[in-house]
Structures are given as C-alpha cells and as structure tokens.
Amino acid sequence: MPEGVQKTGKKVAIIGGGPAGLSVAYQLTLKGHSCTIFDEHELLGGMMRYGIPGFRTPRAVLDTEIQRIIDLGVEVKLNVHIGKDITLDQIKKDYDAIFMGMGAQAGRPLPVPGADAPNVVTAMAFLRAFNDGRLQHVGKRVVVIGGGDTSIDVATVARRLGHIKTANPSERAEHIIAGQVAHDVAAVSAKDGAEVVLCSRSPVAQMNANKHEVDEALAEGIEIKGSITPVSVVVGADGRATALRVAELETVGGKQVVKEGTEYDIPADLIVSAIGQAVDFTGLDGFDNGKGLISADKHYQVPGQKGIFVGGDVLRPHLLTTAIGHGRIAAESIDHYLSGEDLGKRPKVDVAYFDVLRKEIEVGLAPEKYQSRSKDEVKKEEGFAKDIDLGVRGTDKDKFAVHNFEDRSEKYVIPSTELFLGHFPYTPRNKRNFVTLTAEQVLGHFEERLEALDSKTVVSEAKRCMSCGLCFECDNCVIYCPQTAVFKVKKAQSTTGRYVDTDYSRCIGCHICADVCPTGYIKMGMGD
Ligand SMILES: Cc1cc2nc3c(=O)[nH]c(=O)nc-3n(C[C@H](O)[C@H](O)[C@H](O)COP(=O)(O)OP(=O)(O)OC[C@H]3O[C@@H](n4cnc5c(N)ncnc54)[C@H](O)[C@@H]3O)c2cc1C
C-alpha cells in the first residue's frame, strides 16, 4: 500500500492482468483497497505481451511499467484461470467486489468451407505462439485475412520470421501454433523471406488499419489485395490447405457484392484469420450478451450482477488507452460500491482534472472548517446584518472557502479561440523518427521502429504545452490589473492552483485580467 494511504480492509478480485485489470489495480490500491490480479498467463500484460509484437510494445518498457503497479502492493496470482482453476462463486465468496477484464482472447475462425484444415489458424493463436517465442519460422507462403491492425501485425511478423527451405513437416507452423511445442531456436538455420499476402474486404485505401501501418507493411514487401473476400479454403489430398479461394467484390447500391466469375486461388502454406476477437467464456457462463462480449451499465457494472464490474476488450475490442480508461472509471464505481455509496451520476464526457482542494490538503493548506454564524455575530463583526445564510455569499475574506479557482478542465477543453495566442510563438513538434524497413531489411528485424527521443528533446517537447485552462504563473493578471485587485498569494499560502487571489472590494469587473491571461484560465462571473 503506498505511503499515507489508509487501508480500507476491502478486497477486490481482478480477473485478467491486461491494461484494463492493471489500471483498476493501480487506481483501487491508491484508494486503500487490497487488490489481487488473477491471470491465466505466466506473465502480466495481456495483449500488450501476448498479442502486440515486441517491436511495437517493447517488453523492457512494459515490464518496468507493470512492476511500478505491483510495487504499490498489488497481489498477483499467475497461471490461474478463473472459471477452470477457481470458480467465480468461490471468488464471490472471498472478495468484496470483482472486476472482469479478461479481454477478447479468442480469435474468430474463417466462416468458409475448408477452414478447419490444420494450417488455417486464428491471428490470436499465431501471435501467441510468436510472442511466447515458440514460433521461429513460418511457411513459404502466408495468406492473412483481415484489414485491421491485427492483420497487419500478423503479416509483418510473418515477414520478419521468414521460412526455412529445409524445414521438415513436423516443424510446420501449424504444429507449433496448435500445440505447446516450440521450434528449436538453436537449430534455426538460414532463413528466406516468406511471401505474405494480406486480403481485405475493403479497398486498400479504406482498410481499418492505421494508414501509416499499411504503408509500412507495403514497404516491407507485403502484398495487400483490397476488395476481395474469401470464398473457401482449397484443401489438398493430405487434408492441409493449399490455397485460399477468393472472389473480387464490387459495390452495388451501397452494398459490397461478389463479382461473378472473378474467383481465383492464392497459394498458401499457412492461412491466418484476423477477422475479429471474442471473449473466452470458459467456466463463466451467463455473461455472454449474445455477441461474444459482456454488457455493462454506465458505471461499468454488469446488469443484474451487483458488485461485478467490467472493462476493456470484454466490452468491445478497441485500444490500450480505452481499456486503461475503462479501468479508471470502473475503479471509481467499485470504490463507491465498497463504501456503500450510491454509484452516482456519470459525466457525459469523462475527463481527468486537477483537484485543487486535494492539493491544498496534501500540502497542509486545507481550508478552515465552515462555522455558521448568528445574525448578531455577523452584525458585530461586519457592522451590518444579512438576511441570507451567512458565509455562503460574500466569502472572499473567509478562510473556509477556496478562492479564485475554477477548474475549467473539469468541464471542457479550452478551445484555441480562448487562448491569447500572441504568447505562444509557433514551435515545431519534436517528432520521433520512424525506421521504415525495406523488403530486404525486414527478415529477422525485431527492433522497435519508432525511435525514442533523448531526454533533452523530451523536455523541450513537454515545454510546448500551452497549459490551456490552467494558470502557469505568468503574472500578467497581477501586472495589468488597473485596480491592483489581483495579487499574488503569499508564499506560505501558495501551492499549485493557488497562485493569485483577488480582492473583490477593489475589483470593478473590467475583464482586463481575463483578456491578458494567455491560457484562458480566468473566467469572469458573479462569484456564486
Ligand atoms: C494483435 C493486436 C494488436 C493490437 N495493437 C494495438 C495497438 O497498436 N494499439 C492499441 O492501443 N491497441 C492495440 N490492440 C488492442 C489492445 O491490445 C487491447 O484493446 C487491450 O489489450 C485490451 O485490454 P484488456 O485488459 O481488456 O484485455 P487483454 O489485454 O486481452 O488482457 C486480458 C487478460 O486477461 C486474461 N484472462 C482472460 N480470461 C481469464 C480468466 N478466465 N482467468 C484469468 N485470466 C484471464 C488474459 O489471458 C489476458 O492476460 C491490439 C490488439 C491485438 C489483438
């Protein structure tokens, strides 16, 4: 448990140690709850380790980031599948709340005849075998079906692995992918590049995959065929696939239909289906919403399953950042649930914001406790009586209120029209260099292609931040206020978010402070 955090005594079970589960563990540990992550793998990370290749999420960085979370005091139980090794009922008995972040581990098989041939595999199984280090080479001709980022990952991995002319049948990729056996790394001799063809139903320019990744794949020698659909898998006498039969698609009345008489075969030693993912519900009956995923309410609680929360790919396969964000929101809901509170309303748009009150408490500058005063007391202190509840209006002198702070980032992003752009000379972005590989260079290249910035450049990149919506202590409001109403908070009272204050008995509402504020931080209002 981090220093200064009070233990609540509540226990939370987190099923799945991918980005969603790790995010929940991080957030809840900071709130004082004891978290245990259960994962069926031998290491944490989920798809960041067993799906996305290391040349995109470098493992050294991943390991360090995961360790930072574990070091907060998170308990980890690996090689445990909830539903097989431990029942969900047992988890319900042992823990106060549950987070299900199992991701979408199952790949969708090709829905065409012949797809049950042994050398037709899913992208999930292919990438798992590669990331485990078992798969060291693929066949000579690999055909990938997809069009999203996963299909690009499969194709680029296949190009990097290459093939071995002398490989014997027992070393075929499908045996390695299907079983737990591994290629013998020491025995891997000279490799040749594999011929990789990626087939997409969309035209190449409209593929779901990131355009940049598509361009890189083309540069690496991957052939991409757009506007085609798989029709069947051509199976040889030995039961193995020898080709993928495809047909061209055309758009008729806004719909894609097969163009008659355009069928042809693409020869293949390995066919990989990268057409989607689904949740593995083994031992977790009753959660499938009929679409291979789990449904949740706006608090990320499973409807009808009080105390069970979800997030990440189980809701909808998407991105790492989405899963991490879901984890943060679910953790908030779990925290309310464990405190016996109403789960409350959720904002339309979830944003992170700076909490000045929390900051003031943290640095020992917490506002004073509010004391209500009687009319007589107020009359004595201020020379006149007010009819309204005292201390609620006209609090600029009171120390129980936080003055001069309105956290605009809680509500919306400040648009550039509200910034005083004259203060921000154009500074070009410090872009990271991307290494583009040619078809000749790609074989055996497993290094990260996006090069890191050095620490000096990282700092100068961070300095380009305009702090929109926040005060960066430029003093303009203090300098330009004609009434000297705006003043710097005394050093002993000042902290982040408490830099300037206003003497409202001098303020005439002239707006000059707001006009000269570079970041759009000052907003005029009636002080309610
Ligand atoms: C090939 C590929 C490439 C991708 N590339 C990108 C990318 O470039 N950028 C990006 O932002 N996103 C990318 N994504 C998406 C991203 O990886 C996912 O959105 C994200 O990992 C989802 O996180 P999660 O925690 O929900 O699930 P996962 O990362 O899948 O983690 C779930 C974990 O739960 C474990 N688990 C499942 N069931 C159980 C059980 N019953 N008991 C115990 N443990 C269990 C799993 O083994 C796994 O370790 C990619 C995905 C894939 C498949």
Task: Write a concise keyword list for the protein shown above.
528 residues, alpha/beta, FAD/NAD(P)-binding domain, 5-stranded parallel β-sheet, elongated
Write a concise synopsis of the structure shown:
The protein is an alpha/beta fold. Helices cover 23% and strands 16% of the residues. The chain is built from 14 helices and 18 strands.
Structural description of this entry:
By secondary structure, this protein is α/β, with parallel strands linked by helices. It starts with 10 loop residues before the first strand and ends in a 12-residue tail after the last helix. 23% of the residues lie in helices and 16% in strands. Among the domains are: 154 residues, FAD/NAD(P)-binding domain (3-Layer(bba) Sandwich); 158 residues, 3-Layer(bba) Sandwich (FAD/NAD(P)-binding domain), CATH 3.50.50.60. The radius of gyration is 30 Å and the shape is elongated. It contains 14 helices and 18 strands. Strand 10 and strand 11 form a beta hairpin. Helix 1 packs parallel to helix 9 and helix 5 crosses helix 6. The protein has a five-stranded parallel sheet, with helices on both faces. A five-stranded parallel sheet has the order 6-14-7-8-9. Strands 10, 11, 12 and 13 form a four-stranded antiparallel sheet that branches. The site of flavin-adenine dinucleotide has 37 residues, from helix 1, strand 2, helix 2, helix 6 and helix 9.
